[in-house]
Amino acid sequence: MAPSSLNELSQAVLPDALGAAEPIIRISGLEKTYAGGFHALKSVDLSIRRGEIFALLGPNGAGKTTLISVVCGLVNPSAGEVRVDGFDNVRDYRQARSLIGLVPQELTNEAFETVWNTVSFSRGLFGKPPNPAHIERILKSLTLWDKRDNRLITLSGGMKRRVLIAKALSHEPRILFLDEPTAGVDVELRREMWEVVRQLRDSGVTIILTTHYIEEAEEMADRIGVINGGRIVLVEEKAALMRKLGSKQLTLHLQVPLDAVPASLAGYDLQLAADGSELIYSYDGAEEGSGITALLGDLDAAGIAFKDLHTRQSSLEDIFVDLVKERP
Questions:
Q1: 3-state SS record for 176-235
Q2: Domain for residue 251, yes or no?
Q3: Helices 157-169 & 115-125, crossing angle to 10 degrees?
Q4: How high is the pLDDT of residue 263?
Q5: Concatenated DSSP letters of 133-177
Q6: Which of the 8 DSSP states describes residue 73?
Q7: Which of the pair, 40 or 14, is modelled with greater confidence?
Q8: Which of 2, 217, 230, 296 could form a disulfide with 63 if both were Cys (CB 3.0 to 4.6 A apart)?
Q9: Do 106 and 56 lie in a common domain?
Q10: Residue 73 backbone zone (phi > 0: left; psi -120 to 50: alpha; other: beta)
């Protein structure tokens, strides 16, 4: 019986030893200007590490889909270079493209074909010889084995997305692009898909995903890149990004509402709620001294008492919104 876990796919998907130090994708000076004059990509430099989950975030029209399309060889660049595991994706198109699996956002499955046939056909498109054992491993790992003889039109939206992933893995790629992998699916199914992606990463596949669900990147990514206006404005380890850019807030619930922040507290970054019942203190969570102790002392000296307090740290969504707002 064929192995059923995604971890056991690693022997089929990654037959060669991986050199962890060299990026599996290296993008240099990438430009794309469409015929109508729209400048979609502007001097993009980006390296993707082997075996990581890299989340690419950006508002609509930022260049996410164009960047993926250029790397996958679906759109020709105007300038610059893309290397996929050392292969130039223009000069060495076949070698570069054979290393990539692409799961598009749109559900474009052949409605009246069976799951088995459509996944097997995708393998043949890359010139790979038939390998029923590999197709079986993929279908079992994605919980599609019992659906192998079902026509695609009979499947749920979530199962159709799993079929798209199976098709993308059919030719044993080392890199998987997921363009909005959980768009339009419910929360429960979204979390199931997250687990599938984690297992693929654990099997050795490099995952690059675009998403407009900020919590998806926050939950899954090892590193995060932000693209806006065709430029990469930031690439950072997720944890480091949260530490460096994530501010904290201390909210003090006052016993007696204030009309204004006293002049004696002007040295603090304080905001007063509209009804005067709360003082909100913003500070840098990455710095050693938060100033909270001094603030509480000065509040006491000013005769301001509070009945409760709580802290909140910026989410990745807060950080993303600030980045896009500050760097047009």
A1: EEEECCCCCCCHHHHHHHHHHHHHHHHCCCEEEEECCCHHHHHHHCCEEEEEECCEEEEE
A2: yes
A3: 30
A4: 87
A5: HHHHHHHHHTT-GGGTTSBGGGS-HHHHHHHHHHHHHTT--SEEE
A6: T
A7: 40
A8: 230
A9: yes
A10: left
> Which domain covers residue 187, as residue numbers?
6-242
C-alpha triplet 233, 82, 235: angle, nearest 5°: 25
Cα 173 from Cα 162, distance rounded (Å) = 16
Report the alpha-carbon distance of residue 293 to residue 188 in Å, rounded: 43
Taking phi over 0 as left and psi of -120 to 50 as alpha, with beta for the rest, 101 belongs to beta
Q: Once rounded to an integer, what is the mean pLDDT over residues 36-62?
A: 92
Kind and range of the H or E run holding 75: none
Rounded Cα–Cα distance for residues 126 and 245 (Å): 43
Instruction: Assign residue 187 a region (left: φ > 0; alpha: ψ between -120 and 50; beta: otherwise).
Output: alpha
Residue 1 covered by a domain: no
Q: Answer with the one of 191, 212, 242 that is the final residue of a domain.
A: 242
Enumerate residues 6+ apart whose C-beta is below 8 A from 294: none
Q: Rounded to 5 degrees, what are φ and ψ at 69?
A: -65, -35
- Work out how many domains the chain is built from and give that number: 2
pTM, rounded to two decimals:
0.71
- The amino acid present at 197, given as its one-letter code, is V
Q: Tokens 């206006």, residue?
A: 229
Strand partners for 209: 55, 178
Closest CA to 174 of 74, 24, 53, 8: 24
The radius of gyration computed from the CA coordinates of the chain, to the nearest angstrom, equals 25
216 lies in the same domain as 272: no
Identify the bridge partners of residue 223 per DSSP, sorted by sequence position. Answer: 54, 237
| pLDDT tens sequence across 174-227 | 999 988 877 766 677 777 778 888 888 888 899 999 877 777 777 889 999 988
CA distance 12 to 135: 10
